[in-house]
Amino acid sequence: MAARRFGAIEAGGTKFVCAVGSSPQDLSVAERIPTTDPEETMAKVTAYFREEVLRSGPLHAIGIASFGPAGVRPGAADWGRILKTPKRGWSQTSLVQPLTAAFGVPLGFDTDVNGAALAEYRWGAARDCNIATYVTVGTGIGGGTTVNGRAIHGLRHPEVGHFLPRRHPDDVAFEGTCPFHGDCLEGLASGPAIAERWGASLSHLPQNHIAHEMIAYYLGQLVVALQAVLSPRRIVFGGGVSNTPGLLDRVAHAAKDLGNGYFGDAADVDALVVAPGIGQQSGLLGALHLAEKAWQRASSNT
Ligand code: ZN
Predict the structure, then answer these.
(1) What's the 253 CA to ligand 1 centre distance in angstroms?
(2) Which domains, from first to last, does the chain contain?
């Protein structure tokens, strides 16, 4: 059988990263398309895949790992759509419709963090972990959890970034940046919340700056909350803020303090909090995985 070819799209708030391939090993050099208005962005995405089809032959399926909130329930009217978002023009935009119209192939769709969680489970730092969570800490904070290799969806997709943490004792004046909740986790510990408080990114603040301790205190609470609710075997921290040197050690340390030995010993927490196994690629590889699953589902239905 000839190799299958899949389209993969990591649809982000600032750029859409597109690639074609059958596995992580042969994924093409990714095309980066700036996220402008929906029509222009989707036209460029479609044009990229059209060119790929003309050059190297048809695609078997396309996978999209999208920024959220997004409709992820297969069969629901809002499946494949961006839901209500402050990002201008994008509320109710369907990402799947233009691609279905152009290529007529099966489409896989999920959030970017669910995609990343699936890719980390399959190829990265969460292999063989029956329950694992991927958390991104960057412009926003989000997370996806896989159970036996499937991403959790409920009524909607989980939104760990909007969990409500306990305030750090020295962080009482700042109101938080979340337009919905003010001082939820994203409102206190995302990149914009850090920049607004201290005028710099975490990695540009000296290691002895209290910002490091505070952000670790908040992310440590997320670790404890996940331990309490899901008992994951791995929590993979990706995103720009997570790359800050020393941060994940501080997060593990904070989680140990806050958990106070209840969820296992110190070594358990050290093994729990890890960096991505596939670097910055987890979103795009998640989209590749979603494409392959969509193709398998379609093939088994025929
Ligand atoms: Zn919030």
Answers:
(1) 25
(2) 6-112 (3.30.420.40), 125-275 (3.30.420.40)
Phi and psi, residue 56, nearest 5°: -130, 10
CA of residue 162 to ligand 1 center, whole Å: 4
Per-residue pLDDT of the chain (302 residues; tens, 9 = 90+): 567 999 999 999 899 999 999 999 999 888 999 999 999 999 999 999 999 999 999 999 999 999 988 999 888 999 999 998 878 899 999 999 999 999 999 999 999 999 999 999 999 999 999 999 999 999 999 999 999 999 999 888 899 999 999 999 999 999 999 999 999 999 999 999 999 999 999 999 999 999 999 999 999 999 999 999 999 999 999 999 999 999 999 999 999 999 999 998 888 888 999 999 998 889 999 999 999 999 999 998 76
Q: What are phi and psi of 235, to 5 degrees?
A: -120, 110
Measured between alpha carbons, how far is 276 from 148 in angstroms, rounded to an integer? Answer: 18
Alpha carbon of 293 to ligand 1 centroid (Å):
32
Residue 64 near residue 9, CB atoms below 8 Å: yes
Residue 252 DSSP SS3: helix
